[in-house]
Amino acid sequence: MPAIGLGIGAVFVPVSDIELAKAWYARLLQVEPPETTHGHLAVFPRSGGARLVLDAQIFMPGKRRDAPLFHFDTEDVAAATSHAQALGVEIVTPVQSEQWFTILDPDGNVLMICRC
Fold first, then answer.
1. Cα dihedral value 55, 58, 61, 62, nearest 10
2. In this predicted structure, what is the pLDDT of residue 108?
3. How far, in Å, CA of 58 to CA of 16, rounded?
4. For 12-70, how does the pLDDT look when each residue is reduced to its tens digit (9 = 90+)?
5. How far is Cα 76 from Cα 73, in angstroms, rounded to an integer?
6. Which pTM was predicted?
7. DSSP letter at 61?
8. Hey, is 13 helix, strand or coil?
9. Distances, alpha carbon 81 to alpha carbons 94, 98, 101, 115, in Å
10. Hey, CA dihedral for 27, 57, 12, 105, is it positive or negative?
């Protein structure tokens, strides 16, 4: 067995306001927001995959990336697009190849929604 496995345990997202970010991601993902721990972390458990960790301690203003940090899976791109629009989420890239689109979170992090 290798010392380091291929599985990804968590993805960290830098956020400026942990409470605002928790509420935004919970609405987007249609789940209950997790508790805040250590004053700066919120961990969204994911069944069968990596956990999503919002971290206000690693946020650095002005250090936004233009490429997606990661993607959320979807089975229905049209339904995902409609859901994001209904929440008032800013869509950066409209649906491409009937397969994916990108959005911005409240801190300007680019996220992809993808039917892979």
1. -110
2. 93
3. 9
4. 999 999 999 999 999 999 999 999 999 999 999 877 788 999 999 999 887 777 889 99
5. 9
6. 0.88
7. T
8. strand
9. 9, 11, 8, 12
10. positive
Cα within 13 Å of Cα(4), Cβ side: 2
If you search the block for the tokens 């409470």, which residue do you land on?
19
Nearest to 93 by CA among 82, 85, 84, 101: 101
The answer to whether 15 touches 107, Cβ cutoff 8 Å, is: yes
The token pair at 13 is 């997202």
How far is Cα 114 from Cα 3, in angstroms, rounded to an integer?
A: 31
Q: What is the C-alpha to C-alpha distance for residues 38 and 49, in angstroms, rounded to an integer?
A: 23
